[in-house]
């Protein structure tokens, strides 16, 4: 493939991880055409002295992953953008394999096989699926890398921790919604791409992910962000006929949070979503008008309760 590709690394106080991340980017068998680090106001010096081959875009403050990713998309004219978390290390053949997966003209995103950095025998994410109760499933998460995720194929969307995006379509549908700040912004973008007629491919190219590299610094726990952004996603795009599975999941999450001692964080996330819900609701009509593929086709009827409704599937579907 003769396409150009830039690596974009959102960074926020990633001094512990960024050097290894950049070393892996430089070691690709198919070199990147540009290396871009988008810094969210780091105070640990992690964005300094990265080398003459790295362009640093400084946002001055932490505006969230979504804003950093958008800044990276705008900072390059490359055909493809590889979004890579600062706590991710790519195998040398990652980009070559991902570009091959992105060759079909209707593929706008390519997901990879993410494994744990501390234990590469365990899957972290092998492409995402969205259910009609609002839950995003990460294929294989927490399960052994036993060969079930070694076949290329199609997924709903790609985890932005290590993904290849076709830049034009991503920008054409509006890029990442910066109101999400962090978490599920990639699912929201994936949904809009699918509604616009694009596909997401899966390639078993390996990325090793530490996980939570900067999340401990956020003003609310990860669970609170997921609760908040799930409501925003549902309000923005889901039809009213899916209200039952959505309500079921919200109640189930409340019960689980109460039992697990995280109810305060969960309720805080829900409360934080409330001011944005009217705007999200108003955007539904615009999204529906612009959609080429019905949402009932894009988000298929996977089980949303029972043994197979857990957040992480046990098989490759």
Describe the overall structure.
With 317 residues, the protein is an alpha/beta fold. The chain folds into two domains: 5-216, Spore Coat Polysaccharide Biosynthesis Protein SpsA, Chain A; 220-309, no CATH class. Helices cover 34% and strands 20% of the residues. The protein contains ten helices and twelve strands. Strands 1, 2, 3, 4, 5, 6, 7, 10, 11 and 12 form a ten-stranded mixed beta sheet that branches. It has a two-stranded antiparallel sheet with strand order 8-9. Helix 6 (222-237) crosses helix 9 (277-290). The radius of gyration is 19 Å and the shape is globular. The protein starts with a strand and ends in a 19-residue tail after the last helix.
């Amino acid at each position: 493939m003769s396409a150009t590709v830039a690596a974009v690394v959102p960074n926020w106080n990633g001094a512990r991880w960024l050097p290894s991340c950049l070393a892996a980017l430089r070691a690709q068998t198919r070199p990147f055409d540009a290396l871009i680090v988008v810094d969210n106001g780091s105070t640990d010096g992690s964005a300094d002295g990265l080398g003459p081959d790295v362009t640093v875009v400084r946002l001055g403050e932490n505006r969230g992953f979504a804003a950093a990713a958008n800044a990276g998309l705008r900072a390059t004219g490359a055909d493809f953008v590889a979004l890579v978390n600062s706590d991710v290390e790519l195998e040398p053949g990652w980009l070559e394999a991902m570009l091959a997966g992105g060759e079909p003209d209707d593929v706008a995103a390519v997901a990879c096989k993410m494994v744990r950095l501390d234990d590469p025998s365990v899957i972290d994410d092998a492409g995402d699926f969205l259910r009609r109760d609002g839950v995003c499933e990460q294929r294989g998460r927490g399960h052994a890398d036993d060969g079930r995720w070694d076949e290329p194929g199609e997924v709903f969307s790609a985890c932005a921790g290590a993904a290849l995006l076709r830049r034009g379509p991503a920008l054409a549908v509006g890029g990442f919604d910066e109101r999400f700040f962090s978490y599920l912004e990639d699912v929201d973008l994936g949904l809009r791409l699918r509604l616009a007629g694009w596909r997401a491919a899966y390639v078993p190219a390996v990325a090793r992910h530490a996980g939570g590299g900067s999340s401990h610094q956020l003003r609310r726990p990860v669970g609170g962000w997921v609760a908040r952004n799930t409501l925003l996603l549902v309000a923005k795009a889901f039809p009213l006929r899916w209200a039952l599975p959505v309500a079921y999941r919200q109640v189930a999450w409340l019960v689980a949070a109460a039992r697990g001692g995280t109810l305060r964080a969960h309720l805080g996330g829900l409360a934080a979503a409330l001011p944005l819900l009217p705007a999200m609701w108003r955007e539904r009509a615009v999204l529906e008008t612009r959609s080429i593929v019905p949402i009932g086709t894009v988000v298929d009827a996977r089980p949303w309760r029972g043994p197979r409704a857990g957040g992480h599937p046990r098989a490759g579907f």
